[in-house]
Write a structure and sequence with these properties.
This protein has about 200 residues and is an alpha+beta fold. The protein has three helices and eleven strands, in the order βββββαββαββββα. The longest helix has 25 residues.
Length: about 200
Amino acid sequence: MDDAKRMVDTYEVKRAIYIGDKEILFLVDERITSCPYMVCNCSWDNPLGVEQYSDAMGSADYLEMMTEFTERVRNQFEAVKAERNKITVPLQPFTLKHCIPSDYKENIENKVVIIRAECLRPEYRTTDKQLVLVKGGFGAHGNSRGRAVYTVNLYSGKESRWNREDILGTLKPEYMPGWAKERLKQIQGEQQAKQQKREQER
C-alpha cells in the first residue's frame, strides 16, 4: 500500500466503512474490464491484528456492486444492534477515576486493566469491551521496550493484542463489577486447567 492510495492487490479502495467487527470495502481496477468493481470484507480478528480479506465479489456492473456494498454495511449495522441488545451488563464506559493510571514501570501481567475508550470503535466504547485480563506480551512487563500486550476480554472471553499505550490503567478493586469477578475466576480456572494439561503431556 503506498502513501496516497490504499490498495488490495491491483484494486484501489474507493469506499470503506468500518462498523462492528468488519470493514466493508468497495474497490476499483478499471484496467480489468471484465471485473472492474469489487466488494469485500476486511477484519483484524486475529491475535496479531493483521488485515484479513474475505467474501470478495466482483462484477462489471457498478450498480450491482454498489448495491452489494450498501447491503453489507446495513447488515453490519443490524449485527451491531443485535449484539448490543444481548449485553446483560451496564454499558457506561470506565474512565480514569476507575483505575490506577498506567505506569510503564509496572508489570501488569495477570492484572485486570481498562482499555482506553478512544482506542475502541465508537460503537464499542462500552464496559464489556474495556475490561481485560493481561496474559502476557513484552509490553506487559515494566520498563520493557516492547509494546504488545496480550489479553482476554472478561465479558466475551475473546483474546486480543493491544499496545501498552492503549491501556488506561489497572482497574481499582472497588470498581470491579460482580459479573467481572465471576468471569475472572472462570477464566483463571480455565487457564490453570490448560497449564496443568500441558505439564501432564510433557
